[in-house]
Every structure is written in structure tokens, then in C-alpha cells.
Design brief:
homodimer; Rossmann fold; 7-stranded mixed sheet; 7 helices; Peptidase_S51 (chains A, B); protease (chains A, B); hydrolase (chains A, B); serine-type peptidase activity (chains A, B)
Amino acid sequence: MNIILASTSTLFGEQYLEYLKPELEKLYNGIDEIIFIPFARPGGISHEDYTTRAKDFFATININVKGLHKFEDKIEAINSAQGFFTGGGNTFLLVKTLHELKLMKVLKENIESGKPYLGCSAGSNIGGINMKTTNDMPIVYPPSFDCMGLVPFNINPHYLDSNPGIRHNGETRETRIKEFLTQNDIKVIGLREGNWIRKIDDKITVEGSELTKIFEIGKEPYEVESGTEL
Amino acid sequence: MNIILASTSTLFGEQYLEYLKPELEKLYNGIDEIIFIPFARPGGISHEDYTTRAKDFFATININVKGLHKFEDKIEAINSAQGFFTGGGNTFLLVKTLHELKLMKVLKENIESGKPYLGCSAGSNIGGINMKTTNDMPIVYPPSFDCMGLVPFNINPHYLDSNPGIRHNGETRETRIKEFLTQNDIKVIGLREGNWIRKIDDKITVEGSELTKIFEIGKEPYEVESGTEL
């Protein structure tokens, strides 16, 4: 496999995908066109405008981008593609759409065959075992929470440390993930913005500028440095 | 109907349910025992310990509390009860449990017959039309997101204004609720901590110390004062 699952597409104050540019040149080495999967986007911008945003970035590394929403036969489009990028948005909407269009399995098979894949945020959640550690609001009801399982764990993108100064009784991110572990025996990678999961063949590492927080049943959460094998 | 749907059980720095005490004396006027529904609680404390916490508070207003988890025949327990209180926790777990035990409809019918109901946080989400505006993590997969519809809108508990100082690209609460409105034509009440919905017979008002933010399709979000009829 040859994949990147990133916490976010955009670092604060930076341009779209800018911080990942050197990595993406390596990920898509030898490829001149990818399919963009815009289905996480619930509003604000259309699938077409969202695709244009990806297209503009990828033009700077000489890769053409086609939006999956434009293809009549989406399964054939995935089977014929050289590589993929799934953008962020709402994970419930993304997973519902992929299941309803019968695309989750075909996308997984194509990625497992070695085609490069980039996911950001919701697009990274679907690389995990299931979407039960998304931060998103359940604005639609997917037929299943199961995802592609490209990695043997779940991802929590945009991982955020709690702010002890806040006078608010909503649960912290850490509490939410610990609650997940009371119901599921699945490791969770709390991926801070600036970090990503890199899988090359069978080797999985965590990369980026921040420490990464890992949650497992029966252990205190612990942090690992960039470059650590997962 | 005679219900309170509160944003939170506990204000920052206060004791459990303390800020609602005068309201709860009115809500449960003439009642000496209620059923506590602890099923939102995924961990940390057991259903029994969670019930004890409610029991300790309600002892101060001379109301006995029995935990629903202790009853063999839970439908019969609900049908025989004088009133109800559903505590907070994880809404996915609460809704899954209520649907699987076939309790959502029987609870709704009992409340609609006039028995007093208090919900806090997840317990308030289930008073709305569906749970699609919860803030919780989808740690389990419920058979449906439908809730009791005691009020003709959805609730977003622990409503939190965005903090422009935060250097983080996760969605704000306002963005999430606006995304909900791209997929659903249901009014959403953003209930800040300190506020609650009060329904007496057919009259619904919002109460408490804060302004309340309301989101509707095709309108800019707007704020209403305590006492406003919804």
C-alpha cells in the first residue's frame, strides 16, 4: 500500500495542502491524474467547486484532478483511476454516500492493489476500521459505520488537547475517546493537526510536526514522536 | 406535557443539578418517586453509581429515585412510573439502548400522557425529533437516529460559541449545525449551558441565564432571550 491519512488538509494560516506538498510529490510519484472524492462536503461549496480547489493545488505538482461526482459509472471510474484523494467535510455524509453508491469496498480494493491514496480529515477517518471516532455531527444516518480498514486502528483527526481554562461541561476529546474504548477494543490514533499516518507496503508510521497521542484499552494514553512505527 | 430539557446537569463550579433545583420542585410537584434512566453513561461510573448520584440530589427535594437498569420488566417500570429523569453521557449509546430495549416509544407515550420528564444533555437530545444534532462521538451504531419528538425541533446541548483565538481547523459548532441544515429541514435550538427548554401543556419556552441561538433553513442564526416562546 501507498497511503497518507492526514489530520487536516490545511494548517492554520497556510494554503490548502501546502504543508503536505513534498510528501504528495512522493506519494503520487509517476502518476499524472487522480480522482478526487468530494462527497464529505455538505454545503458551503459544491462538489464542483471543491474539486476545483483540489485541482488548483495539484496543478502545482503536475497532476490532473477529476471529480468522482462527474462520472456516470463511478465504480468503473475508481477501477480505471491511477490514484485517489478524499477531502474532508462531514464523515457521516461521506460514509453514507460511499456505502449507498457501493464504493467503499471497490475503493478499498483499488488502494490495497497499490494505487496511492490521500485522505484528509473525513477522508482519513474512512481509512480506519470504522468511523466511530469521528468528531463530526451525525447529520445523516449511514447504513453502516464500517470503513475501509486500510490500517488496523481508528483515527481521530484534528486531535485537540483539552483546555483547562474553559468553563464548559461538554466532554473533552480524551474523555470521548476513552468512552469509545469502553465499547470497542480498537486502538485510536489521536492525530494532531500537522501530523499524518504514512503506510508504505506493510510499514505504518506516524509523521509530522507534533507528538501523536495513542489510546488503547487497559493503558493510559501515551504519546509517540514523529517517525514512530505503529 | 410537563417537561424540562436542559443543556447540562451541572454548571461549572456548581453541584449536580443545583442550578435547576427550584425548577425541579415545580416540575415534580406532587410526585414522590421517579425513574432514572442511566443508559447514556458509557464508563467512568456504573449505572448504579450514576443512579446514586441522582438519588442523592433528589433526596434534598424529597423524591425517591429508582434506576431503570434494576427492573427486569423495563416497559412495565416505565408504565408504572410517576415521572422520569434521563441523565447525560453519550447520546449514541442512550439511543441505541432505548431502541434495542423498545423503550423509546413507551417513554414518549408516558411523557405525552402528562408524566413529568427531565432530560440533561443526551437526555435532552432524545426529547428532540432526532439525535442528528448531538455533539457526541458515534462510539456505537444505533438502529435509528429517531428520538421522541416531545418538541417540534432538535436540540444542540452545551452550545458553544466559536473561539476566534484558537489555531485549529476543526469545524465550529455553528458550522456543524449549518451543515445539518443542508441535509434536514428541522429547526435547531443551540442551548447554552445554564439554559433549558420548558414545555407545560402545549406551551414551549426557553429559560435560563443565557441567550439562546436558533438555527433555521434559509435564515441567519438568531438569538432569543430567556422566556421566549418557541
